[in-house]
Every structure is written in structure tokens, then in C-alpha cells.
């Protein structure tokens, strides 16, 4: 097996007497997306800052892109790209000028700088806007420019700190596509997000950060299997039908106000059939049936004790 692109053992960081990272172990295989999930203030940005050499850890053995972070921070810096919550884009100059500036910083020749800039502007659909000041760009365009600037140096490992926070759904999906393409090209992506759906969509592996530790780590599927929470919900408009159904289906959780019943279920066909058979025998029909399979929300709430997180779609209506 090749060395992981990012490896941390016993990573610790405190600010004053506040322990932010309390001994974290991570291993991110090259060419994969790793997502660090956590509520506000969990320490995601601190982890990114440490792994990208911007902040020094108090303890831990850290390797990024094959280099020891403590011994060779310059080598790490040369191999990585970072797009943080505070963008590197200068609004006063054009998108193209921002890119060329980046090319200068990476000591590319004028010619090479122009070539790389042209290619990336094209790839990120910014050619038309390239001669306009970046301050006039939409939020999505600025993020695209930010990532394009990060790519000028050809990094093998990219840290994306909440890359879609504040973007509208279309821009968010565009960004997801960009991230998928980066990974197809062999880049390793370390992604922090507050959006569970984003981690579900993109990440090969997900770690949930809570109280300075990794509360759980695994693929989205593995994490979902950690928690119970699957159920069928039946909604009624007729109170009499609601009451008959409640009588016919023991073990349900009732919501008398909403006229809805919640029945624990693994979501399998057999389970659904048994619910429907019982309703049929009782001669009642539900007005709505939804199947809820555990999602990352459930995992997150179970692991972090219900810390607030933005709303996520929770149910699949079948
Ligand atoms: N330079 C600093 N000095 C003191 N405390 C800090 C510093 N940087 C971060 N912290 C504290 O460390 C904790 C973790 O912050 P961090 O920014 O890493 O969280 P986060 O998970 O990225 O949250 P968010 O989603 O809000 O960005 C917070 O309590 C924060 O107040």
C-alpha cells in the first residue's frame, strides 16, 4: 500500500486552557476525498490550518504529501493548495490578474503562467469574466476563481475549508462537480463542511469531530449503519382512520396532533409489506407513507448530542 497523502497521529492543539484537538489520528489515502465534519467551533479550521502549515500543532506526528510537517514545512507547502473560508481573491484586480499573480508566486515563467491561467480559466468557466474585477463576481464565481488560483501550483493535496458555505444550490452542485473532477485527476481532497449532504455526496471517508476527538470515522454507509433511526411514517387526514391504524399497529409512536404514526422499520420490502398488510386487515388507508432510512443527520446527532446543524432533507418519500 502507498503512504497516505495525509497522516496524523496524536494531533493536539490548545488555545490557552481550551483544548481544540485532543489527540487526533487520521489517514487519508491519495486520490480520495476525506471529509471532516463538525459543528461550529469543533476545530475543523484549526485542523486544516495545522495540516497546511499555517498554525503549529502542540503535539502529533504529521505527514502531508509524504513530507514530515515539522521537519519540512516548505516541502509540504509546495505540494498543497488551500482554499479557506477567507478567500485569497483580490477584488480590485481582474480574475486573470489574480491568476497571473498566483503564477508569479509559484515562479512560473511568463509564458507558462499565461498558459496555465488560460487553461484554468477555461476549465472553471471564467473566460468571459476574466477581464473584469473579481469584486464584480458572484459568490460561486469567486469560489471557482479561488480554487483555480489554488490549482496554479499543481498541488497534489488540496484543503477545502467549507467550500460551499453560503452558495446557492446550483453553485454548490457546480462546486461538487469540480471537486469530483479534481479527484478523478488524482488529487487528494481534505474537505471540511457543515453540510452532511455534501460529505455524503463527495467523501470516500468521513470523520465526525466532537469535543476535540474523532467521534466516528468511516464511509457514509458505515456511519449510517452505526445508528438506529429507520422508520416508516404514516399520515392521516381522517382521525377515525388514524385511531384504527394506531390500534392495528402496536409499537408505534403516535403524534395525535399531526395524525401521524411512526413505526420502527429497516425499510425493507418485507417490513413495508407487513405494515401495509396490517393496515389492509384493519381496513384503513394512510394518506401518506414515507420511509425514513438513517442518514448522516441521525449519525451526527447521535454522536454530537444534537448540536445544531443546518437543516438537511431528511426523508425519502416513496
Ligand atoms: N487563534 C485562536 N486563538 C484562540 N482560540 C482560537 C483560535 N483559533 C480558534 N480558536 C478556538 O478554537 C475552537 C475551534 O475553532 P475552529 O475555527 O477550528 O472551529 P471550526 O470547527 O472550524 O468552526 P467553524 O465551522 O465555525 O469555522 C473555537 O472555540 C475557537 O474559538
UniProtKB/TrEMBL annotation:
Domain of life: Bacteria
Keyword Secreted: no
Record domain ABC transporter: where: 6-236
Any one GO molecular-function label of the UniProt entry: ATP binding
UniProt entry keywords in alphabetical sequence: Antibiotic resistance, ATP-binding, Nucleotide-binding, Transport
Membrane topology label: Peripheral membrane protein
Compartments in which it is found: Cell membrane
Protein name as catalogued: ATP-binding cassette domain-containing protein
Amino acid at each position: 500500500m502507498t503512504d497516505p497523502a495525509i497522516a496524523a497521529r496524536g494531533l493536539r492543539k490548545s488555545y490557552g486552557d481550551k483544548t481544540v484537538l485532543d489527540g487526533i489520528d487520521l489517514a487519508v489515502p491519495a486520490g480520495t476525498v476525506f471529509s471532516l465534519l463538525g459543528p461550529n467551533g469543533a476545530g475543523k479550521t484549526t485542523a486544516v490550518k495545522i495540516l497546511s502549515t499555517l498554525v503549529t500543532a502542540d503535539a502529533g506526528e504529521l505527514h502531508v504529501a509524504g513530507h514530515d510537517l515539522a521537519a519540512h514545512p516548505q516541502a509540504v507547502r509546495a505540494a498543497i493548495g488551500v482554499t479557506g473560508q477567507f478567500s485569497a481573491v483580490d477584488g480590485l484586480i481582474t480574475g486573470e490578474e489574480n491568476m497571473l499573480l498566483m503564477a508569479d508566486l509559484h515562479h512560473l515563467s511568463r509564458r507558462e503562467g499565461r498558459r496555465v491561467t488560460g487553461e484554468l480559466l477555461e476549465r472553471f468557466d471564467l473566460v468571459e469574466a476574466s477581464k473584469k474585477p473579481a469584486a464584480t463576481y458572484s459568490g460561486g464565481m469567486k469560489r471557482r476563481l479561488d480554487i483555480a488560483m489554488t490549482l496554479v501550483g499543481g498541488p497534489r493535496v488540496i484543503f477545502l475549508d467549507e467550500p460551499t458555505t453560503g452558495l446557492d444550490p446550483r453553485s454548490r452542485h457546480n462546486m461538487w462537480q469540480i471537486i469530483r473532477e479534481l479527484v478523478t485527476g488524482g488529487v487528494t481532497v481534505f474537505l471540511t463542511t457543515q453540510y452532511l449532504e455534501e460529505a455524503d455526496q463527495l467523501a470516500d471517508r468521513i470523520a465526525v469531530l466532537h469535543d476535540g476527538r474523532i467521534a466516528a470515522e468511516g464511509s457514509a454507509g458505515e456511519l449510517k449503519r452505526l445508528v438506529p433511526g429507520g422508520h416508516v411514517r404514516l399520515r392521516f387526514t381522517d382521525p377515525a382512520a388514524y385511531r384504527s391504524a394506531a390500534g392495528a399497529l402496536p409499537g408505534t409512536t403516535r403524534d395525535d396532533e399531526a395524525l401521524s404514526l411512526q413505526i420502527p422499520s429497516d425499510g425493507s420490502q418485507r417490513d413495508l409489506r407487513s405494515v401495509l398488510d396490517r393496515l389492509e386487515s384493519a381496513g384503513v388507508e394512510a394518506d401518506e407513507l414515507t420511509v425514513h432510512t438513517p442518514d448522516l443527520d441521525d449519525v451526527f446527532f447521535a454522536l454530537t448530542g444534537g448540536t445544531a446543524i443546518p437543516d438537511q432533507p431528511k426523508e425519502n418519500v416513496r
